[in-house]
Amino acid sequence: MRFKTRGEPKRGGLCHCMTCRKAHASAFNPFVVFEPAAVEISGLTAGWESSPGYVRAFCPVCGSRVVAVNDHGEGGREIELSLGSFDEAGWFRPDYESWTVRREPWLQPLCAPQFARERTR
Ligand SMILES: [Zn+2]
User: Fold this and answer.
1) CATH number of the domain that 30 lies in?
2) Is the pLDDT of residue 28 over 80?
């Protein structure tokens, strides 16, 4: 699976929720969010709906968790891409952290808005 993005993301964050932890087999999920028109995906993907309207897709060859499609119904769709799947480091910075109630106690908060659970604004 490969992807290309155009322009700047709408936002980016770190999610510490239990589903992201399990899906990424990691302490948190760093991600950026784009409009669907700004993302081009090619190659094989496989996926599963982890919550209603939220499909997590991965590369069936290497198993990397790469992209999620978040369907907000009337609110439109968004594409979430995992920061670690980009070819270079340092392109994006997280704007906030969500589900901090699940953050590992050894991790320091970022200097960014903190949400105990879902992002509310
Ligand atoms: Zn999450």
Assistant:
1) 3.90.1590.10
2) yes
